[in-house]
Structures are given as C-alpha cells and as structure tokens.
Amino acid sequence: MDEILKVSNLKTVFYDNSREVHAVNDVSFSIREGETFGLIGESGCGKSATCRSIIGLLKENGKITEGEILYKGKNLVKMSRKELEKIRGHEIGMIFQEPMTTLNPVVKIETQITECLPKTMSRADKKKRAEELLKMVGIADAGQRLSAYSYELSGGMRQRVMIAIALAAGPRLLLADEPTTALDVTIQDQILKLLMDLKQELKMSMILVTHDLGVASQTCDRIAVMYAGKIVEMSDVHALFLNPCHPYTRGLLESIPTISKKGSRLIPIEGMPPNLKKLPEGCAFAPRCRFCRSICLQQEPQLQEVETGHFSRCHFRGEPEGEK
Amino acid sequence: MKSEEKILLKIEHLSTTFPIKQTIIEKVQKKPEKTVQAVSDVSLEIHEGETLGLVGESGCGKSTLAKTILHLCEPTAGSIQLDGVGELVNANKPVVKQMYKNVQMIFQDPYSSLNPRMSIRKMFYEIMAVHHLCEKSEYEQKTKNILDMVGMPEDILDRRPSAFSGGQRQRIGIARALVMNPRLLIADEPVSALDMSIQAQIINLLVELKEKLNLTMLFISHDLRVVQYLSDRVAVMYLGKIVEEAPAEELFKNPRHPYTDILIHAAPEVNPEVRSREYMIEGETPSPIKIPTGCRFHPRCPYAKEICREKEPERKYIKEHCSVACHFPLHIQEI
C-alpha cells in the first residue's frame, strides 16, 4: 500500500505570553492508502494540534517550527497559502468535535454545503449534489433539510451535516477530531458506523482523534498514543490493546472500569499530566510511572521498535526488574 | 442487597414538568401553555448503604430527578420520603434545611461548580456557619480533616479554585459535599468531565469513601462502564420514565428492556478482538415535547409490535428487585 501522508519530526509550538508551549514535539508517523489511523491521548497531549498542523488550521499563536508533512509527496509545511487552499477541503477534509459551534447558525445548510463544491458547477447541479450528500450521510427527507438552519437539527444530525460538508469535495484523507465525543452512545454508534461505511465506499484514508479507547479499538487499523506532545507508543490495534508496552498505555487500559474489576480497586495513573511549559527532564511520563528508574529521570527515551511495526518510547521493554 | 435493609429515600409517582415559553403571537392567540414532562411517574427506592446507578442518555430526565430530590426544581406530582426527615415535596423551610444536612450533591463540571472568587477556606466556613455544624474554633480542623480524606494537602486553604486542576477541583467538590456528613450523596456525572487517568482516581476515591463512611449514593451517569463498576443496583431511564431496574450484575448480564440491551451494546468494546457491531439502533431520542404514543421507545425499538404503539407498558416486577416496563421483555426464559 502506498503512503498517502507522511509526517516526520513535526514540531508545533504555541506562544503564550512569549513563553513557548511545545504542543507537538517531534512527531513522526505515516498513513497508508485506505487506512484508519487513531491518535489517542488525554486532553492537552497534542492530538488535536497534530491534526490542525496537518490541515494548516493552527490558531494565530501557533506555528510549525520543524519537520515536514508530506501529502502524496508534496510538503504541506512549505506550501503557500494559495497552494494549500487547493488541498485543504478538497484533498483533505476535516470533521470537528463540536457540531454545535462549527456550523454557522445564520446560514442555511444548503449554502454551507454548496460552498465547498467546485465553482464551475451550476447552481442546480450544486443543489442536487448537496441533496445527494445529505442522503449519503443518512439524513431522511434530505430535500427539505437543505433549507434548514443548524439550530433546527439535533446533535447527531448536525454531526451528519458536518460529515457531508467534509465529504463535499471528495477528499482522499479525512481528519476526524473527536467526531463523537459530544454525542450519546447510541448516536455515537450510528455516526461511527456511518464514518466507517463511507470510508470504505469512497476509499478514503482517515485520521481519527479520540480520547475513548473503546472507539479507537473498534474503528482504527493502527494507533498512536500521545503523551505531552510526543508519540509514546504506536502499533496496529491488536498489538496495542493486547500487548501494550509503554507504561502509560498500560495505565490507561488498567484504569478502565469493567465488570471483572468490580470489587477490587482500579489502578489509576497517579498524579497529573505535566505542564507543557516546563516539561521534566528525561522521560515526560517518569513522574507518574509505576516503574520509574533513575535512568528515566535523566535520559529521554527514544521511540524504539519492540516488535515489527510496534514502537514504544520507553527505556524498558516490559516491566523493569528489581525495586525502584 | 437484602430486602430487610432500611429504605433511606422513597420516591413515589414523581413527575416534574417545565412550561415552554410562549411566543408573543401564541400569547395573543391565547393558545394553551405547552409543557415538557422531564420526569414522568418515577418510583424508586434507595436503601441505606447501597449505590444506585441511574443511567440514560442526555435529556432523559436523570439530572432533573436529582434536582427535584434536592428541592432545586418543584415537582408537579408525587412524593419523596426521606427517612428521618419526612415528606420533601412542598416541604417548609426547616424541613428543607434538615434535608440538606442529609442529602448533598456532587456536580458534573468542577470548573463551574466552585465559586472562583472564594478561597477554599471561605467556601467551607460558609457551609459550616449556615448549618451551625460546630464551634467557630473547630472550623479549621474540620476542614483540614475533610480535605485530608479526599486526598488534598491541608495547606491549600487560602487558595482559590483557579489554582487547581480538574481532578483536584472535583476532589474539593466531593469534600464540600462531605462536610455536612450526609447520609445520601447524589453524584451527577462526577467523572465525565475528567480525563481517563484522572477518572480512575476519582472513582477509586468514591469507592473508598463509600466504604469508610458507609455512604448511600445515587450515581448518575451516561457511561455504562462506570455505572457497572460502581453500582449495586441500576435504574435505566428513557424519556422521563424508568424502563428497567435491577441489580447491576443481573442488568448487564440479562438486560430485559430492549433499550437497556441496545445501550449496553452501543458502548464500544475496548478489546479489539470483540467486534460488537450487529446492534444498531435506528433514529434519535424523540423530543420530550412530542412524546410518542404507547411505549415511549417504540419508534426506535427493533421488536416493536402493534400493542407497543397503542398501549403504554406498565412497570412490572418479574422477580425480586427486577422490574421492567415492556410488553415483550427479553431474556425472560432465564428466570
């Protein structure tokens, strides 16, 4: 399979009152044609910032300082605004987390979809295409819904409209930033199913950003776990969930409450995520790590391949021997 | 859970409705005022020392039920009996004050539920002063004890909420509820605003406190995994009604109501080897303004028959502690 996107050594910095926040710190990964790649982690770990760096939608105080993002061999970081606009929305589409705030409440759904269609299309064609798109994302009586405003729709419907907008120009790569976080479980189930079906039908690749391990395990082919701006573990979905190597991934999996853990205590990850403005020396996870050794506090581990296609950023492959 | 256990809170046929604001045109035309029935004919019992989980999707009325118990909304019908205090519906002021000494709440959003302009000290002293909990000289020691119980250092008294992270704020929120030494703790989605690793810390804290203080808890959540882990009994709500109630293990093993069954299977499985995708629910929750006729769930139910469209099913006990409101409950042969 060909690589559609290759991100290497990406560094994104946000400037907050002249202090630098390293939101994305040396992130490298690649996505193959037709693959669903999951980015998981807790809030502030840099998963959304990675996504926004790819599509060039960082806030004014954010900047890509190093690295390259190759989309079909072309470097998006070096591109001019005009060139980027040909790719953004056309080749790469994005679905945002909050369908309530990302749709314009004073513009009709039809206008919001047709905006994304090629300018050469006639008005009647655009309308027809918009209706098709709404049908494709499973909205009943699509024709009538075209003239609706976003506030007239429910949360699930709005997310469907968002997907229709993202798909309008027929993107090859879809970035979905927490597409179901604001929705109820039954609606989440519907939206995820829809996304997977559409991905298959339109032969797209997808990056799915989520904090929900369940969502990731059910939809992704490969997953990268991020912590404090870095990828700490990356592998295919089965190896990651069945044989997690990094203590952070293991901690996340252990802290999920399940029926079999009932009656016994959960094993939480102690402490809090580090402040990105002053990262600790050595491994960023060391202060919270159960297996922390002196080397972890001094030297930063590199992303190592523990088995084919399974990478972990830890000094130890499994549990280190001996006491702390 | 044993039947001889003391009932701490008994809710009978409780309904809460909210009026819908009319437009000027509707007022001029003198159209009848419309209402939303957020909680409709709910009966529940909470026994001393147990955790009752209340599950449902957004808008099903679970938070309104909690607010009604706490006198933050006025019910339109029904009764709420609190052991040792009495009837809470239409109660007078002294009774309500007495109720607050027994029932306390933990809120969902730790960022908006703590007053940003009040220091931790002021926040706790105020509660103790209002309810005359102890002598002024004991305030500081009592606050420190409570904070220690929820795992917060005692030198934080003069800081304000902005100095703390989400998980720490939630700990302070729990401490604030515990100052009153309540018999019933109502936790409304206490972990849904928190990150995964912090979530487990707070869940552990709740389990620990429950054991240590023999707390009774009404745990409201939309996350079935958390409810499953924490609760002794679970009640499932849909559009203002309790559709099923059963001990936690029983409910997750043999869900009787089709909605419960779908809800359990809609939660994505963490193990990638288990692909649970054969269950799909059609449609979305109807608006509580236009409640469907007959069974409220019938437009989305995969098993709906003619009778479901016409007649609303009553809540029936199929065995001890297991009740379901469905004409055709599932897994009935396994009894």
Largest sheet of chain A: 8 strands, mixed
Which sequence of SSEs, written as H and E, runs from N to C of chain B?
EHEEHEEHEHHHEHEHEEHHHEE
Strand order of the largest sheet of chain A: 6-7-8-3-9-10-12-11
**Form type of chain A:** globular
State the domain count of chain A: 2
| Unreliable sequence segments of chain B | none
Structural class of chain A: alpha/beta
Summarize the amount of helix of chain B as a percent range.
25-40%
Query: Oligomerization state of this entry?
Result: heterodimer
Task: Write down the overall geometry of chain B.
Answer: globular
Relevant CATH superfamily of chain B: P-loop containing nucleotide triphosphate hydrolases
| Biggest sheet character of chain B | 8 strands, mixed
Number of self-contained structural domains of chain B: 1
Mean pLDDT value of chain A: 89
Structure, described:
The complex is a heterodimer of chains A (324) and B (335). With 324 residues, chain A is α/β, with parallel strands linked by helices. Chain A folds into two domains: 3-227, Rossmann fold (3-Layer(aba) Sandwich), CATH 3.40.50; 233-312, no CATH class. Chain A has twelve helices and twelve strands. Chain A has helices at 47-55, 81-87, 99-102, 109-114, 123-136, 142-145, 155-167, 185-202, 213-219, 237-242, 247-254, 294-298; strands at 3-16, 19-32, 36-40, 62-71, 74-75, 92-95, 173-177, 205-210, 222-227, 230-236, 304-307, 310-312. Chain A has an eight-stranded mixed sheet with strand order 6-7-8-3-9-10-12-11, with helices on both faces. A four-stranded antiparallel sheet of chain A has the order 2-1-4-5. In chain A, a hairpin with a 2-residue loop joins strand 9 and strand 10 (230-236). In chain A, helix 5 packs across helix 7 and helix 7 (155-167) packs parallel to helix 8 (185-202). In chain A, 44% of the residues are buried. Chain B is an alpha/beta fold and 335 residues long. Chain B has helices at 24-28, 62-69, 93-102, 120-130, 139-149, 166-178, 196-213, 224-230, 248-253, 258-266, 306-310; strands at 7-19, 35-47, 51-55, 77-82, 86-87, 103-106, 184-188, 216-221, 233-238, 241-247, 316-319, 322-324. Chain B is globular. Chain B has one domain: Rossmann fold (3-Layer(aba) Sandwich), CATH 3.40.50. The chains are: A alpha/beta (324), B alpha/beta (335).
